Amino acid sequence: MARIPLIGYDDAPASVQEIYSQFQSSGSRLLNVMKLFGNHDGFLRGVAQMLQALYADNQILPRYRELAWLRTSQLNHCHY
Fold this sequence. Notes:
The protein is mostly helical. The protein has helices spanning 14-25, 32-37, 41-55, 62-75. It is globular, with a radius of gyration of 14 Å.
């Protein structure tokens, strides 16, 4: 059982539902990590803005972006 509850779309306040809808309208799935961030709408909004900046108007080709993710995971000893 999760220690911090995951906030689903139906259980979320209107401000969080709006952000969830933005994720879904951009073609992204509503991942559990986003449901976790749904506990704090300000934090979720900040994450959404960061993701928008990284993915919507990026100048990096997808293959190089993937290499950056892989290298970052390797440096952090994270299993990608």
